Amino acid sequence: MKNLSILKKPSELWKIILMNIIFLFVFLELGSLGWYFFKYQQFFYTREKVTENHQGEELESQKQNENTNANVKRNPMGINLAGIRLESSVIERIHPYFGYVQRPGPDFRKDFKYNDAGFISPYDYPYKKKNDDQYIIGIFGGSVASNYSIYEIKNQILENKLKQLPEFRDKEFIILSLAIGGYKQPQQLILFNYFLSIGQKFDMIINIDGFNEVTIAKSNNENAVDIMMPSTNHVVPLTNIANNSLSTKSIQAMLKINDSKNKLKDALETLDKCQVAYCYALTSIYVQNLATKYRKNVKIFDKERKKAAEQAAGESEASIVYFYAQSPQFKESELYETMAEHWQKTSTMMQQIAVNNNILYFHVLQPNQYYLTNRVYSETEKKIAFDPDSPFREATELGYPVLLSKIDNFKRNGVNFFNGAQILDDTKEIVYIDSCCHYTEVGENILSEFIANSIFTTLTANEN
Q1: Cβ(321)–Cβ(191) under 8 Å?
Q2: How far apart, in whole angstroms, are the C-alpha atoms of residue 435 and residue 392?
Q3: Which three-class secondary structure state does DSSP give residue 223?
Q4: Rounded to two decimals, what is the model's pTM?
């Protein structure tokens, strides 16, 4: 009865409630601090934050692929968001020559847009020189090349290096990105020829590739599509929409994916603002569950997409878009050798066309975490950069050595080829922002410095 008397005193009751709330918060916070330390081997309040923009290229089919332009402020440590689109659902558009481009319109990065040709750039194409001192550099490749062009425009690493040479001292450098996530040869070759044909002038072109060539060759081959065709992961979902071949299950999966996407955006904003450990712990678990649901529906969507593709293959009249079939499919032993031969041939053709048009051509093999070098990764970066279930791991492990075997052929054909596979080995800082292929600002800077120094060295050597 004495205890009941407390209920008659509102002030005492509120004290008890308040004390319980405080104890609950303390226990939650202590438990969350322990959870965070166990998971990340660091204290929450002194944690190493990953604050690079998550520039990801997500598939139109919502399938895991390399990332570009996902407007995510932070890649939370231990939460794999590779392949998850958090912006508009359909950002690609089928293109009659290039396979696909981006939908023209604004971009979240200041001073950039998707221009009239569907490429991210401050300029529309073809860009006309305003005076003879302008020096136009075209950047070709996939999302890594696209990110490089943005980084170069902002930081002028190559420009500052080249201006050490007398012939570049008074030049105004114009960087034109002709790179889009998922692009691979012969898309670069086709783009180069097309833009030359409509009057675009170039003084130099830089082709940054390799990763897409190996991973998309594997993906196309698995989908019984010729490996030289554009990425089926990007184009087939667009053609399914054009063919009106989405099943009821596909549509249901798309609606669930969209719902998870919207919830993920809100949850990630909350996660970014968490100032206490229990907020971060509970929200990150919620984000991980949403990501799991997202991928579950991605698999359902992709399964239904493949059914539609198989049906269309059996009924050729059903599709309004035609892909060259890869029949029979390549065995692993011949897939990467065939891919590498195509890569070398088309890249050499770009160099020959460039020479004939008085254009400097430089080719860069991009680094990737799944091609193992001597680099030592911290435990924090391992959680960010590696996914045991990655669709890119096997293709990179098997394909990169075959690409590297073609270096001597490039040299014999006069191609300025720079092997960037090991350029990240000497840094201990985090250089990857996802489990695909994209870099933090540190990684972007290393790549940019490597390209600038390699071009500078080549030009200097040619003068002597």
Answers
A1: no
A2: 9
A3: coil
A4: 0.74
Amino acid (one-letter) located at 178: L
Task: Let me know if 412 is exposed, middle or buried by CB neighbors in 10 A (0-12, 13-18, 19+).
Answer: exposed
Q: Could you tell me if 220 and 160 are in contact, meaning their C-beta atoms sit under 8 angstroms apart?
A: no
Cα(221)–Cα(335) distance, integer angstroms: 8
pLDDT in tens, the chain (464 residues): 555 555 556 666 676 667 667 766 666 667 666 766 666 666 666 666 544 333 333 333 333 333 333 333 344 555 556 556 555 555 778 888 998 998 888 766 667 889 999 999 999 999 999 999 999 999 999 999 999 999 999 999 999 999 999 999 999 999 999 999 999 999 999 999 999 999 999 999 999 999 999 999 999 998 888 999 998 888 777 776 666 556 667 667 767 777 777 787 787 778 777 777 767 777 777 887 887 777 777 777 767 766 665 555 444 445 566 777 766 789 888 999 999 999 999 999 999 999 999 999 999 999 999 999 999 999 999 989 999 888 899 999 999 999 999 999 999 999 999 999 999 999 999 999 989 999 999 999 999 999 999 999 999 987 76
Task: Give the integer Cα–Cα distance in Å for 340 and 210.
Answer: 9
- 192 vs 353: CA distance, rounded Å: 9
User: Which positions ≥6 away from 5 have C-beta within 8 Å?
Assistant: none
Helices (H), 362-421: 379-385, 393-404, 407-412
Pairing, β 134-141 against β 113-114: unpaired
**Cis bond upstream, residue 186 (ω within 30):** yes
Burial of 156 (0-12, 13-18, 19+ CB in 10 A): middle
Pairwise CA distance, residues 346 & 362, whole Å? 14
Which residues fall within 8 angstroms of residue 94, CB to CB, at 6 or more apart?
Answer: 100, 235, 238, 239, 242, 321
- As a whole number of angstroms, the distance between CA 102 and CA 68 comes to 11
Beta pairing, strands 92-95 & 99-102: antiparallel
- How far apart are alpha carbons 163 and 132 in whole angstroms? 16
At 206, list the tokens: 């830089």
DSSP state of 318: G
Question: Token pair 């409630």 is at which residue?
Answer: 17
Q: Would you state the structure tokens that stand for residue 412, as one six-digit string?
A: 């014999």
Exposure class string for 47-65: b at 16+ Cβ within 10 A, else e: eeebebbbbbbbbbbbbbb
The two beta strands, 172-179 and 204-209, are: unpaired
Q: State how far the Cα of 253 lies from the Cα of 247, in Å rounded to an integer.
A: 10
CA distance 199 to 101: 20
DSSP category for residue 225: B
